[in-house]
Amino acid sequence: MDDRLMVEVAGERLELLADRALHWPTRRRLLVADLHLGKGDVFRRAGIALPRGGTSHDLERLARLVAATRAEELWVLGDLLHGPVYETAWQHAWRGWRVAHASLRVASLVGNHDRALAASGMEIDLLGAAVDEAPFAFRHEPTAHASLHVMCGHLHPQVALPGLRRRLPAFWLRPGVTVLPAFSAFTGGVVVQPSAGERLAVCAQGSVTMVRG
After folding, report:
1. pLDDT for 120-139, tens place per residue?
2. Phi and psi at residue 157, to the nearest 5°
3. Nearest Cα to 188, choosing from 78, 39, 76?
4. 168-174 and 157-159 as β-strands: parallel, antiparallel, unpaired?
């Protein structure tokens, strides 16, 4: 087991990273899905008590991944945000992170939680709902494409392993579609039951391991 797993998808060599990210070395691009920045703030405003610091923790993980991969770009496959953007601690954390990574291009697709993204002032490139860059089609939600392999998020795939009560995040590699796990540590998910020809790469304790296929 290791903190990264090399796979070939649509003729491209990709790295699946244990910290729930995908690295495309040819493009020097780091891909993540479903950050849900500000989710804790949204819950607290709704009267649900949650500990603070979740966004800072996720940004620290992102910083380590950028350094480890030497990525020149960070792409978010939708749901960068969780809801409305308020002037709170997580925004200060994001601005500090952005200053520290000023040379990094950060871009995001629009996910179903990103209604406030266009007006958020987060200093990122907005990619819209879809980007086709052969051999991949980048989307937020899983969909079929006639000729390109779809890279997406949205489902938050997880695995329930025998003997473990805790669900573990996983990459779901399907014919024509790769679904990334949610990057945010503060998310639920969907337990995946893979069909024939599908693979799961489970992220646990700093390692990523192929368990099916």
Report:
1. 668 899 999 999 999 999 99
2. -65, 140
3. 39
4. antiparallel
What residue has token string 């491209």? Answer: 12
3-state secondary structure of 23: strand
CA distances from 79 to 112, 114, 154, 208 (A): 6, 6, 8, 23
- Residue 66: CA count within 13 A, CB half-sphere: 19
| CA pair distance 181, 17, nearest whole angstrom | 11
Q: Which amino acid type is present at position 18?
A: A
Global pTM value? 0.89
Locate 34 and state its tokens: 């479903």
Between 85 and 45, name the one with better pLDDT: 85
In the predicted model, is pLDDT for residue 116 greater than 80? no
pLDDT at 64: 97
- Distance in angstroms between the alpha carbons of the first and the last residue of the chain: 16
Q: Is 65 helix (H, G, I), strand (E, B) or coil?
A: helix
- DSSP secondary structure letters along 90-138: HHHHHHHHHHHTTTSEEEE---TT-TTSTTS----EE--S-EEETTEEE
What are 201's strand-pairing partners? Answer: 171, 210
Residue 145 banded pLDDT, cuts 50, 70, 90: very high
Closest CA to 182 of 92, 90, 77, 100: 77
pLDDT digits (tens, 9 = 90+) for 147-200: 999 999 999 999 987 776 788 999 999 999 999 999 987 777 899 989 989 999
Sign of CA dihedral 183, 187, 193, 195: negative
